[in-house]
Amino acid sequence: MFVQIALAEGMAGRPVSSATLHRIHATLRAALNEAVRVGLVAVNPAVGVESPSVPHPRPTVWTAERMASWRRDGLRPVVPVWTPAQTAEFLSLVRGHRLYALFHLVVLTGLRRGEVCGLRWTDPDIAAGELSVVRQRRQTAGKAVVVPTPAGVGQPDAAGFR
Predict the structure, then answer these.
(1) Closest by alpha carbon to 162, among 117, 128, 114, 113?
(2) Sequence-distant (≥ 6) Cβ neighbours of residue 94 within 8 angstroms
(3) pLDDT digits (tens, 9 = 90+) for 4-26
(4) Considering its fold, how many domains does the chain have in total?
(5) Assigned domain for 8 exists
(6) How far is CA 33 from CA 20, 27, 112, 152, in A?
(7) CB 3.0-4.6 Å disulfide test: which of 44, 59, 123, 158 passes with 32?
(8) What is the span of the domain harbouring residue 30?
(9) Residue at 80 is within a domain
(10) CA quadruple 144, 150, 152, 157: dihedral positive or negative?
(11) Cα separation, 110 vs 78, whole angstroms
């Protein structure tokens, strides 16, 4: 079952993550443990079953050769990463854009898309030099919802970001 799930694509059209596989396994194991406890089954068949690990895509530098391949064949790295020069060029090109400050924040902090979309005007404290990242937007069952960020994200780091 886990192999079939791992080979399938999730709702977003991307491979199912190993974290999702582990959650599925934990839920199934808990349900079967409860079935044993109430006497519906004699033994939990999920005991000893290990969910397969799914390799995480690795970041790949967005080189000129990879960009040419993308333009020619439509193939791009799963996690393309800009070089510092490409980042500087992008920020230079969008300097006059109304969202420049947001672009600058994203490329220098590494905020995830959902975290950026969950920001509100009250989240940055310019005077203190802090940003509270306490919610994120996610797509669930085809609808955008706002949910809290995982525990610990709201704590300031060494640069003062939360």
Answers:
(1) 128
(2) 100, 103
(3) 777 776 666 677 777 778 888 88
(4) 2
(5) yes
(6) 20, 10, 36, 31
(7) 44
(8) 1-56
(9) no
(10) negative
(11) 16
Single pTM value for the model: 0.56
Nearest to 60 by CA among 88, 87, 82: 82
What the block records as the tokens of 31 is: 């349900």
> To 5 degrees, how large is the angle CA 124–CA 126–CA 131?
30
What is the rounded distance in angstroms from the CA atom of residue 119 to the CA atom of residue 131? Answer: 9
- The reply to whether 126 falls in a domain is yes
Q: What are the b/e assignments for 28-40, b being 16+ CB within 10 Å? A: bbeebeeeeeeee
Report yes or no on 123 lying in a domain: yes
Tens-digit pLDDT profile for residues 32-87: 999 999 999 999 988 888 776 666 778 899 898 998 999 999 888 888 899 999 99
